[in-house]
Amino acid sequence: MKRILCLLFIFVAITPPVYHRNGMAQDAEPSHTDNANATDPNDNTDTSASSNTATTANSQHLIESVVGPLDADGVDAGTIATTSTLIQTSGITELLGPLTPLALSPFFGVTCLSAVSLWGPEWASNSPMLGNHGALRSETIFITFLALTIISSVPRFTKVSKPFAQAVDRLEAYAVIIILLVIKISTSVDTGGDEPLAVVQMGVFNAGLDTFLAIAMIINILVINSVKFFFEFLAWLTPVPFLDAVFELCNKALCLGLMAIYAFSPTLATIINLAFFIVALIIFRWAYRRTLFYRTMVLDPVFARLWPPHGKPRTAELIVFNRSELGNFAAKSRLRLLRRQKENGGWILQESRWWLPQREHVLAPDTNLQIHLGWIMNSVQFTKEDQQFSLTFSRRYNAETLRTLADQMGIALTTDTVEHNDAERALEFG
Predict the structure, then answer these.
(1) CA atoms in the 13 A half-sphere facing the CB of 163
(2) DSSP tag of 40
(3) pLDDT of 316-366, one tens digit each?
(4) Element holding 297 (H helix, E strand)
C-alpha cells in the first residue's frame, strides 16, 4: 500500500504545469480573440496598445460572465487575478463531492456517475464527470463499470465467496483513484489551450492547488475505504448468515443516495464528504490496527498452505500483536519480536511506522517468555511488573517449524492449549 500511495503522489507532483492550468474552471467558457482584422506587418500602428486592450477585454468578459456587468473603467489586474482565482477554486466541490460514495463502492460509484452523465436530468451538475461534456459520458464506460460492479459485488453476499471480493477491494479503490486522476488531467488538457491571460499568470498557484486537491482526493478515498473495509471484514467474521448481504445492500443504497445528492448539489455533497472524512479519520488508526490483526490471523495460515515458502521463517523473529496496551504501543499494534544481538540481551519489540521514527520496547533478559498454542491463534505470554501480557500471532508455522524458531529465539514452547474465557474473547474483538 505504501509503495502504491507514493507512486500516486509522485505521479501527481511531476505532472507538467500545463496540465494543471484551468483544470478546475470547467464551467467558465474560454475567451477567444477575434483575429479576423489582423494588422498588416508594414502598418506603423502601435500593436502593443491593441494587444493590451484585447487582453483587458478578454479578462473583463470572463469576469462579467461571473459577477455581472462592470463599469466603463473596467478593473485592474489585481481584481482580475483575484476573480480568476475564485473561478479556479469554484470547481473544488465538483471533484470533492463524489469522493465518499466512490470510497464506499468504487466501481458502483463510477457507474452511477456515468449513468447521471448519460441520462441524468437537466439540473445535474455540469462538472468534469457529469453534464453534456462530462468525461464519463459514454455508454461503453457505463457498461464496463456496470459489469465490474456485478463481478465485484455478487461475491460479497455470501461468507464463502466474500474473501475473493475482499482480496480485490483495495485494487478496486486504487483503480478508481487512477481513473479520477486521469479524468482531472484530461479535462485540464482539453481546456488549457485558450485560457485567459489572468489564469496563465497564476499558473504556479494553480499547479500547486491542483496538486494539493489531487493528494486530498487520494487520502480521502483511502481513509474512508479503509474504515469501510474494516467493518466489512468484521461483518464477515460475525457468524450471522445474511449479515454480509445486508451490509452490501446498505452500502450500495448509501452510495446511490450520496451520488443523487452530488448530482443535485455538489456543495452539499462536499460538506457531507467532509463529515464522513473527519469521522473516518478519527477512527482510522483504531480500525487499521484491527484490520491488520484480523487479516493476519485469518489469512496467514491460508497463504502458508497455498504458498509453502510463506510458512518458512526468513529470520528469527515473530510478527505479533499485543492484546492490551504495552509501553507506548496501543492494543492490536503490529510488532516484530526478535532476540537482541548481544548474548543474553533479552528481547525487543519493534513497531515500524510509515514516515515516523521506529518505536521499540525492550524486554529484560530475565523475562519469562512462553509460547502457548491455540486453536485459531498462538500467543507469547509473559509477566512484567506483576501484570500479565499476551502477544498473539497467527498459525502461519507448523509445529515443527515453530519449535525450531522458538529455540532460535530462546523462548520456551509449551504443549498446553490456551483456553480463552468470555472476558478474553471480548478483548479480542474490542
Answers:
(1) 8
(2) P
(3) 899 999 988 888 898 899 999 998 876 667 899 998 877 777 888 888 888
(4) helix 284-306
CA distance 322 to 304: 22
CB atoms within 10 A of CB 171: 12
Which tens digit of pLDDT belongs to each residue from 122-134?
A: 776 566 667 666 6
Q: Which three cell numbers stand for residue 286?
A: 483504531
**Residue 128: CB partners within 8 Å, gap ≥ 6?**
26, 91, 94, 95, 134, 135, 183, 184, 187
The alpha carbon torsion through 287, 289, 293, 296 (nearest 10 deg) reads 110
Q: At 377, which helix (H) or strand (E)?
A: strand 377-384
- The three state secondary structure string of 66-86 is HHCCCCCCCCCHHHHHHHHHH
One-letter identity of residue 295: R
Residues sharing a CB contact under 8 Å with residue 291, sequence separation 6 or more, in sequence order? 226, 229, 230, 233
DSSP run (H or E) holding 159: none
Cell of 114: 456515468
Top-confidence range, 21-25, 75-79, 343-347, 360-364: 360-364
Which is nearest to 339 in space by CA: 317, 322, 361, 358? 317
Amino acid code (one letter) for 25: A
Which bin fits 367, alpha (ψ -120 to 50), beta or left (φ > 0)?
beta
Per-domain residue ranges for the chain? 2-20+89-282, 292-428
**What phi and psi values does residue 57 have, to the nearest 5 degrees?**
-65, -40
Whether this prediction's pTM lies above 0.85 is answered by no
Q: Are 109 and 135 in contact (CB under 8 A)?
A: no
Query: Contact, 182 vs 5, CB < 8 A?
Result: no
Judging by DSSP bridges, how do beta strands 370-373 and 412-417 pair with one another? parallel
Helix axes 169-190, 203-237, angle to 10 degrees: 160
Task: Judge: domain 292-428, CATH 2.30.29.
Answer: yes
Rounded to an integer, what distance in angstroms lies between the CA atom of residue 285 and that of residue 334?
12
Report CA-CA distances (Å) from 221 to 111, 145, 380. Answer: 17, 18, 37
Give the per-residue SS3 of 147-197: HHHHHHHHHHHCCCCHHHHHHCHHHHHHHHHHHHHHHHHHHHHHCCCCCCH
